[in-house]
Design brief:
It contains twelve helices and seven strands. By secondary structure, the chain is of the alpha/beta class. A seven-stranded parallel beta sheet has the order 1-2-3-4-5-6-7. α6 links the parallel β5 and β6. α8 packs antiparallel against α9 and α9 packs across α10. The radius of gyration is 18 Å and the shape is globular. It starts with 16 loop residues before the first helix and ends with a helix.
């Protein structure tokens, strides 16, 4: 389980490195297998290059090699993606997640050349090919992905999050070349059990329910599918609501859990009114027994 970390901001709207460190502490206390930053859920489009570099350095320092980090390196051009990859390597991080920009096109040949250019310029990186749905992503078909991966040994994982993703995950998992280590699910864990049933090796949801998602993952892998389904069903209403409000929802939950002290977002997300908040809080109360990590505990507040 590798959650995507949000970007915390101060009340004045600046990035908040101290709060970023607290988010990392929370994720690690939840027992995650790795973390992702920056990703779509990090409001990456609203960050300057300097801001994302500052926060990535905080993440790398706080993690301290305890779990893998996947650094988002998507960009409008290969040259910009290469610059992000070099910044990633400078922080001791080898895994980068890259979605090919729509300007490249959606043919296997063009997208393959894009990844090949990056891999040639930054040897030593391992690429997570992100296949996001339209309109944000290129919505690549699984046949094209297998062709792209086959031509690029630097691509070690595929994050498949087109909708519905099930058939694509099955096809990629079945036809993957030897160097592809696995397929990772997307969709905010809303389809987690189906993704795992189809051979996904992990998932990259948002971080606010990381302890519960880790519990689902561990139950599934141990063969306790009934337990995994129960946890999944209890949290699904919250994930459905999260789909509408995205980062605003994540930050509301994190403030409720004591991880953040404000809910400032830069991204243009729908506003939540009092009824939305009341419904979210009701479902949070119903799942309170599943949230095993309390950010207000002194051990977490002082670092893990």
């Amino acid at each position: 389980m590798l959650p995507v970390l949000p970007t915390p901001f101060t009340e004045a709207g600046a990035v908040d490195p101290e709060a970023m460190a607290g988010i990392v502490d929370f994720a690690l206390a939840c027992g995650v297998d790795g973390v992702v930053f920056p990703g779509f859920a990090s409001e990456v489009d609203e960050l300057t290059a300097a801001e994302r570099a500052t926060l990535l350095k905080v993440v790398a320092s706080k993690v301290g090699g305890r779990v893998p980090i996947v650094a988002g390196a998507s960009a409008p051009t290969a040259l910009e993606a290469i610059a992000h990859c070099r910044e990633t390597l400078a922080n001791g991080i080898r895994h980068v997640m890259i979605q090919a920009p729509k300007s490249v096109g959606a043919t296997a040949e063009a997208v393959s050349a894009f990844y090949g250019e990056i891999a040639a310029a930054v040897p030593g990186i391992e690429i997570v090919l992100q296949n996001a749905p339209a309109p944000r992503g290129s919505d690549l078909k699984h046949e094209a992905i297998l062709q792209i991966v086959g031509a690029n040994p630097a691509i070690s994982y595929v994050k498949e999050e087109t909708l519905p993703s099930g058939l694509a995950i099955s096809a990629i998992a079945a036809g993957k070349p030897e160097h592809l280590k696995g397929v990772i699910g997307g969709g905010g864990a809303r389809y987690l059990i189906d993704e795992y049933n189809r051979g996904a090796c992990g998932a990259m949801p948002a971080v606010e329910f990381a302890d519960i998602h880790v519990a689902i993952d561990r139950a599934y892998r141990s063969g306790d599918i009934a337990r995994a389904r129960d946890l999944y069903m209890r949290t699904l209403p919250l994930l459905v609501i999260q789909f509408n409000f995205r980062m605003a929802f994540t930050k509301h939950v994190l403030t409720r859990r004591g991880v953040l002290t404000n809910q400032v977002v830069r991204a243009k997300v729908p506003p939540m009114d009092a009824l939305d908040v009341a419904e979210i809080d009701a479902w949070l109360d119903a799942c309170a027994d599943l949230m095993t990590v309390d950010a207000r505990e002194p051990t977490l507040a002082g670092g893990v």
